[in-house]
Amino acid sequence: MNYQSSNLKAVLLFLTTIVAIFSCTKEDTTVKRTDNAMKITNAQHESCQNPCFSPDGKYIVYTRFLNGYNIGPSELVIIKIDGSDEKVIVPASYSDNVNVPFGSWVDDKICFSSDRDEGADEIWMVNRNGTGLTKLTTHDESTGIYYIEPVFNPQNTDFIAFEYVTGKNDKTAIHQIALLNTTDGQIKLLTNGTYNDRLPSWSNDGSKILFQRIKYGQDEGWDIYIADIEVTNAAPLSNIRSISQSVSDDTDCSWSYNDKYILSSSNYGGLDLPNIFMFPIDKNSDPIRITSSSSNEEGAASQSHDGKYIAFESHNGESEDYPSDIWIIELK
User: Fold this and answer.
1) Rounded distance between C-alpha atoms, residue 210 and residue 52, angstroms
2) Domain boundary assignment for the chain
């Protein structure tokens, strides 16, 4: 055996050993599912979040954060529900552009929040093909107020519910539900800031709003609330009531296609990681568990308008170091 051949074998043996050690110690992030959910995006360092179905159920719009989970800048992307024909409709352009699951796409219009004018977060709108980019609100960033999480009233897109945030620090900021009339630009506060109220979502008939609520200073114990609303007189929310059924964290909520259930990311039943559940609004039956993953945290669920599919985001474990992908599950 010559010296060069011996040297080469030694090097190969060393590299093989290193690979073997790395393979044994590297964390296994493979998703093991029993619910037949299908992944339609392929997140690497980017993170795919907030899926929302098109009215015809053939496409999904979602937010893609370019530097990881909730780490901007971010862009809006449309993709077919089989994972094909993906295209960017609102480029990041050094800004955060964020839509909401269920309710941000009505007819051919998509609404979202953005700081793309290098100011405060405002409400914007764009056509499904990326044309007609329009800024719907304008206010001074020095006020310390931010408009986020906008959703159309499905029966009248002149009205948009959104989250009205006073203060940038998430621990001290005041979160309220608000209503924008796009015809005259007027904004009406629908909750008074006594509680931490977030992520509004309209019922399909346009007569109710849901949101998640918790007391200020608490990190756990988010509950689902529903309220009645009459948009034409812009009255505050009335008949506010909780539909949560136990001591659990119920977040990322949206309506089912028939207004009979609320989809939520929840640890209901004592789960270590939240899965997707459907909570009946009449509270006369137990929540229905939709996804079954013991390894992934799942949220931001949205149901197609024909009721056939639910889309959601999912990432490995509790750590936000892992990016999310968009998954779809067909209801049987």
Assistant:
1) 17
2) 46-330
Put simply, whether the predicted model's pTM sits higher than 0.90 gets the answer no
Distance in angstroms (rounded) separating the CA atoms of residues 62 and 279: 24
* 51-98 confidence digits (pLDDT tens): 999 999 999 999 999 999 999 999 999 999 999 999 999 999 999 999
CA-only gyration radius of the chain, Å? 22
DSSP secondary-structure letter at 236?
A: P
**Top-confidence residue, 45 or 111:** 111
For residue 255, give every residue at least 6 positions away whose Cβ sits within 8 Å of its Cβ, in sequence order, or none.
102, 103, 201, 202, 203, 204, 210, 261, 262, 263, 303
- Mean pLDDT across the chain, nearest whole number? 90
The answer to whether 209 and 159 are in contact (CB under 8 A) is: no
Fill in the DSSP letter of residue 323.
P
pLDDT digits (tens, 9 = 90+) for 312-325: 999 998 888 899 99
Q: Provide the CA 151 distance to its chain's centre, in angstroms.
A: 12
Which residues does 30 contact at the CB level (< 8 Å), separation at least 6?
none
Q: Please say whether the structural domain 46-330 has been given the CATH code 2.120.10.30.
A: yes
Above 60 in pLDDT, residue 21?
no
Rounded Cα gap, residues 302 and 310, in angstroms = 6
- Token digits for 175? 């979160």
Confirm if 50 and 101 have CB atoms less than 8 A apart: yes
Are the C-beta atoms of residues 33 and 293 closer than 8 Å to each other? yes
pLDDT at 235 over 50: yes
Question: Within 10 Å of residue 189's Cβ, how many Cβ atoms?
Answer: 14
Task: Measure the CA–CA gap between 164 and 179, rounded to whole angstroms.
Answer: 9
